[in-house]
Amino acid sequence: MEELRSTEILDREIHEDARKKAEKVLKAAERECERIQSETEARIAAAGQEKKKDYEKKLEAYRQDAESSIPLEKQRRFVSLIDSSVRKALVEWFEGIGKERRLALYRSKLERYVPNLGTARIRVREIGYAESEIAELVEKTVGTGRLTGVTLISEAQSRVEGVVDGLIVETEDRSVLCRVTRAELFAELLSEKRQELAEALFGGRLSE
User: Fold this and answer.
1) What is the 3-state secondary structure of 88-116?
2) Per-residue pLDDT tens for 21-42?
3) How far is CA 38 from CA 31, 34, 43, 138, in A?
4) What is the pTM of this model?
5) CA-to-CA distance for 101 and 108, rounded, in angstroms?
6) Cα(156)–Cα(55) distance, rounded to whole angstroms?
7) Which residue has the higher pLDDT, 42 or 73?
8) Dihedral angle at the C-alpha atoms of 182, 187, 188, 191, nearest 10 degrees?
9) 182-202 vs 2-96: helix crossing angle, rounded to 10
10) Residue 106 vs residues 15, 130, 167, 188: alpha-carbon distances, Å
11) Average pLDDT over residues 134-144
């Protein structure tokens, strides 16, 4: 009996010791879990703060870009308005001066091309005028006996070549081609007189 009691006491001591060790291990594990959870939450919070700062920086950069682009866009729109208004005014002016003055402008421009044409025979394509009117203009400018013919530019061809009014002079061997059209007249005026035309049209409002 004494030996049985000793065995029971020994078993209880072993179980008690094992329970204490298990409790110790569990408590250590709980502390480790709490530490890991705390560090994880801290890392998540820190990462969140970094992301927040990053997004705030991007938002601020976007805001600054948007604000700086507004004056440029305003200026671009104003320049575009001036340009389109000047071009519209040129069209109205050109249509309003009458056929005789338009032909006189074309003759003046063609005179500058005469040296390029040399003594070659030439042919002409035109749109907007009678063929006899263009023939007379060309012969008075380059000399009689050199014109081989005047043909009308068709509406379809006009769209392809971008000619709405004027004439195209070409040597018979096609080595020289001179465009004497409304587009060329406008390009010359805009190149040399754009500022004057804009100021005449807008007055003192160009500084807006």
Assistant:
1) HHHHHHHHHCCHHHHHHHHHHHHHCCHHH
2) 656 755 665 676 567 666 666 6
3) 10, 6, 9, 95
4) 0.61
5) 11
6) 56
7) 73
8) 160
9) 100
10) 119, 14, 8, 12
11) 94
